[in-house]
Design a protein that fits this description.
- The structure is a homotrimer of 188-residue chains.
- Chain A contains one helix and nine strands.
- Chain A has 188 residues and is mainly β.
- Chain A has a single domain, classed as Beta Barrel (AOC barrel-like).
- In chain A, strands 1-3-4-5-6-7-8-9 form an eight-stranded antiparallel beta barrel.
- In chain A, a hairpin with a 7-residue loop joins strand 4 and strand 5.
């Protein structure tokens, strides 16, 4: 191999380093291992006209056939609920909260239970200070559902990822608990 | 240093250049060609008090001057609509659905028709299983409008992109059809 | 060209490959300097039953104990407001608008003032044509709050970043002005 050949390979390589690479993002498979992962629970107690003190959420939008203290017929289609729910590290409602889940969910299908969620985790623990923002469809009849982590702030600066949501408990139409397995694939 | 050693370093470098790097996210212009593109239609039939059977959406929030069965005056300003709309591959409402568009839209301007959207495509076809999540302003008087693809799951794992939305049909105040040209620029 | 020269080029190349580029998105710290930054103000005048002409927003969802012309008790918990607010370059409501902030906010806590926002900046200036989409928690009692820029279109094609929000004025329960310091960390 002559020196000229080495040089020409070098030139090609150099051009490639400055020119071809990275055009790449949006084009290539990246690692599918999370760069950060955390499992949290949040607890929702919906206002039903009698539990003002304990309620953490309230119906604020309802369809023509609904009202604000009872989830509507037809699988709650058209109900919009605002919440400020405690987040805990385990599945116990009475554990010390590590933050609040704040935002809304809505029921969006007549035939079966299906919801759509947009909310934030506002965390303030020794481990994490910051917020994670979520959005996505929540087909409640599936054991697990994936929604998007669309951004983050503070310790979660610019984060993106997937949250796998699971209904961990469901008691009548007043209380439910979601287990959220947050997997971040973009960490800054 | 022998030529073979130079060559082996070169080989390593070359592998790394084409395999490991991906320069400067957040800093440089990346390719503006979509890594994935799909065109879909969705169909919205709003509840008007008489079409309970066919309706796929319902007004659930309205301003002081509005109600839940007629879109409000002033260009529907203040109406909030939850939907579960069939998605089709062509512009025919009666084609076999390939998924559901689920979420909400709201009308947000008094002077002209303008909306804001946040929803998911929940797809379950032979080609695609997964969800795409969208959010953005929808100035309806423009022929085409661009909204953001803010995330995805399943076959659309971690996707980001732009969706160009076009009103493909509009019949009275009960039915409309949107053509959505989804262009993903981040594919994982 | 001597072997040493080849080697030194190789060393440079190698350093650049491992040092200048930024391998494995989702895995490493990236630059924390914004690639684009802009400061804007927007102005919200809420409909109270008497100011139809000037109002830029309206309550469209309210809890059982609320109504559509007065923000609800308990720190407005459960109120959902749709807005189409003028954006200005300075803090003067009467300055020439450079666009509109469109979307919604909701109050989501009984004990203190806390909100959640999802909206777009629709900009049409000599400098910028395009939209920025935002979502996040807005704990109003904090002097500054960070929300996520979850996407953009036009001149903000595929943008991501953080917006630091500050209440710049608050007059009774009818008018407020937000200062938004938009910092984009992903520019395409």
């Amino acid at each position: 191999m002559g020196v000229m050949k080495v040089v020409s390979v070098l030139v090609f390589l150099f051009l490639c380093v400055t020119g071809c690479t990275s055009a790449a993002p949006g084009r290539r498979m990246r690692g599918r291992q999370p760069c950060k992962q955390l499992v949290l629970y949040f607890h929702d107690i919906i206002y039903n006209g009698k539990n003002a003190k304990n309620a953490t959420s309230a119906i604020v939008g309802a369809p023509a056939w609904g009202n604000k203290t009872i989830l509507a017929g037809q699988n709650h289609f058209g109900d919009l609920v605002i919440f400020d729910d405690p987040i805990t590290l385990d599945n116990n409602l009475h554990s010390q909260p590590v933050g609040r889940a704040q935002g809304f969910y809505l029921y969006d299908k007549k035939e079966i239970f299906t919801a759509w969620l947009a909310f934030s985790f506002v965390l303030n623990t020794t481990d994490y200070k910051g917020t994670l923002n979520f959005a996505g469809a929540d087909p409640l009849m599936n054991k697990t559902r994936d929604i998007s982590v669309i951004g983050g702030t503070g310790d979660f600066f610019m984060a993106r990822g997937i949250a796998t949501v699971m209904t961990d408990a469901f008691e009548g139409e007043v209380y439910f608990r979601l287990r959220v397995d947050v997997k971040l694939y973009e960490c800054w």
